[in-house]
UniProtKB/TrEMBL annotation:
Binds 2 Zn(2+) ions per subunit. It comes from Nocardioides albertanoniae. One of its GO terms (molecular function) is hydrolase activity, acting on carbon-nitrogen (but not peptide) bonds, in linear amidines. This is N-carbamoyl-L-amino-acid hydrolase. Zn(2+) 2 binds at D85, E120, H368. Pfam families: Peptidase_M20. Keywords: Hydrolase, Metal-binding, Zinc. Allantoate binds at R207, N265, R278. The lineage of its organism: Bacteria, Bacillati, Actinomycetota, Actinomycetes, Propionibacteriales. Belongs to the peptidase M20 family.
Length: 395
């Protein structure tokens, strides 16, 4: 499965992945998912937003209680991303199903393997868009107003991909719990010398657009003291983000900017920059963004530039079901650890679905980049861990 999926959307130069939602590479991944489902005799369901679930039906005459058991992850990537973020959870889910069948397991509750769309927010800017729509956390009207960097509306992308949002979504209607396996995005398991871990919580995080405005002018003829240069204000804001996050032990990153008119010999008229901020608590997230904004505003006053800050998406802290996490981790001695990355599991948990996450060790500690990795032996340990967990939940 991994060999079949690995070439799709891979850059021949960087080795990274470009699997943006509803573009050709991501649609090829969706076709791969459908083929794997059919090969196992699973019933494939789509919703009106592009999400998919492949169902393994409960054994005839079974009396399982508590609703369906859902696993899976996502198939899209960040720009120039790694191979494992998302797809490892989907591939491992199919492999876990194969392992359970080899063991002769007959589920008393339906088991679904899901693939949610636009988890990364790399094209339309709103992370976990597919799962947000599926649980009703984002409205259809809000989603249809989203555009990508080229000005393509999400509604048009849906239409081109043959997705009909008017159908809505009932994929999660009978789901009683969700377990997402994911490559670890950090070094916790490396430091613990553990192949597998269980998530305790997701840090609150947000994306904020900083619009710095100034006055366009000639780079050669305009004296330095006569300039109203928004690039300088942005630069100070980026330094403030680094300083404030380090002081607080949190995370703050300006990873994307857009400059107008974007000329080598021109003082910019506008710089738009996107801040990604993540903290241990909701209150500390608010304080961090306020501190960065205050420093940027002070500099704007000195530089004669303007500043407007717009929260584009903010996700509150998510505490996963503690009893479920303990029941999964305790028999195996797996560590229970927090994560600073957002996941579809966080959206489902916030919607009231008991949720757990399994992490597989990443020996590089790198994620959202081509060097993201997981060793085969650890991936197989993750498959076995997921199969054991699903059997406990669906048995």
């Amino acid at each position: 499965m991994w060999r079949d999926l690995a070439p799709l959307g891979r850059s021949s130069t960087s080795g990274g992945y470009f699997r943006q939602p509803f573009a050709s590479a991501e649609r090829e991944c969706a076709d791969w998912f459908a083929q794997e489902a059919r090969a196992r005799g699973l019933r494939l369901e789509h919703d009106g937003f592009g999400n998919m679930v492949a169902w393994w039906e409960a054994a005839p005459g079974s009396a399982g209680e508590g609703g369906d058991v859902l696993t899976g992850s996502h198939l899209d990537s960040v720009l120039d991303g790694g191979a494992f973020d998302g797809p490892l959870g989907v591939v491992s889910a199919f492999a876990a199903l194969d392992l359970m069948r080899e063991r002769g397991f007959a589920p008393a509750r339906r088991i679904g393997i899901g693939a949610f769309v636009e988890e990364e927010g790399s094209r339309f800017g709103l992370a976990c868009l597919g799962s947000r729509l599926a649980v009703g956390a984002t409205s259809l009207q809000q989603a249809e107003a989203l555009t990508d960097r080229d000005g393509v509306r999400l509604g048009d992308a849906w239409a081109e991909a043959g997705v009909d949002p008017s159908q809505g979504s009932d994929l999660l209607a009978g789901v009683g719990c969700f377990v997402e396996l994911h490559v670890e995005q950090g070094r916790d398991l490396i430091d613990r010398d553990a192949a597998v871990g269980v998530a305790s919580e997701i840090w609150p995080h947000g994306r904020y657009r900083f619009d710095f405005t100034g006055e366009a002018n000639h780079a050669g003829t305009t004296r330095m003291e006569d300039r109203r240069d928004p690039m300088l204000t942005y630069a100070m804001a980026a330094l403030a983000a680094n300083e404030q996050a380090r002081l607080a032990g949190e995370r703050a990153t300006f990873g994307r900017i857009s400059v107008e008119p974007n000329g080598t010999n021109a003082v910019p008229s506008r710089v738009t920059a996107w801040l990604d901020a993540r903290c241990a608590t909701d209150d500390s997230l608010g304080r961090l963004v306020e501190a960065i904004t205050a420093q940027a505003a002070d500099r704007a006053g000195e530089h004669g530039t303007g500043l407007e800050v717009t929260p584009e998406s903010v996700s509150a802290a998510v505490g996963f079901d503690a009893d479920l996490a303990r029941s999964i981790a305790a028999p195996h001695g797996w560590p229970v650890i927090p994560t600073q990355a957002g996941h579809d599991a966080g959206i489902l948990s916030a919607a009231g679905i008991p949720t757990a996450m399994l992490f597989v060790r990443n020996p590089t500690g790198i994620s959202h980049a081509p060097d993201e990795h997981a060793e085969t032996v650890d991936c197989l340990a993750g498959v076995e861990a997921l199969a054991d967990t699903l059997q406990e939940l669906a048995g």
